[in-house]
Amino acid sequence: MPIVRTVGGEREAGMGSFWKRIFGRGQDDADDRKGLSGGDYVRVSELMQFNRNLVEALKHEHVGVELYTRYLLEANDEEGREMYRKLIEEERRHLRMVEGEIAEHKRKGYWS
Ligand SMILES: [Fe+2]
């Protein structure tokens, strides 16, 4: 039996099994899904959208680093190069933030 805990007023079952409860593995899991509420499905839908957003954000941050790196190499003056270095640093910080969020979702079992 999964460990059930309450987070934000919603029931969650040992997070790895959260996805199993929603999607199941076949006929044998039908009983496990009987207790699901509309709120469970909304929550899963929101989590999946958030995960897709994170993947998209990760791509954009990589593109930002690549773009500013190219501009840095093309810059003709030190003032411009310094600005691009700062922008690259900022994009890398964003990358770490997004990667951290993805890692957290994976740790919680919210990633599929
Ligand atoms: Fe960014």
Question: In words, what does this structure look like?
Answer:
It is built from 3 helices and 2 strands, in the order E-E-H-H-H. The model is unreliable at 1-14 (pLDDT under 50). The protein is rod-shaped. Strand 1 (4-7) and strand 2 (10-13) form a beta hairpin. The chain has 112 residues and is mainly alpha-helical. Bound molecules: fe (ii) ion (FE2).
Give the helix/strand layout:
Blueprint: E1 4-7, E2 10-13, H1 16-23, H2 38-74, H3 78-108
Antiparallel strand pairs: 1-2
Given helix and strand content, the structural type is mainly alpha
Q: Whole-Å distance between the termini? A: 22 Å
Helix fraction by DSSP (H/I, runs of at least 4)? 55-70%
What count of domains describes the coordinates? 1
> So what's the overall shape?
rod-shaped
Based on CA atoms alone, the radius of gyration comes out at 21 Å
The overall pLDDT, averaged over residues, is 82
Strand order of the largest sheet: 1-2
Task: Describe, in short, the structure shown.
68% of the residues lie in helices and 7% in strands. The protein has helices at residues 16-23, 38-74, 78-108; strands at residues 4-7, 10-13.
Quickly list its features.
binds fe (ii) ion, mainly alpha, 3 helices, single chain, 112 residues
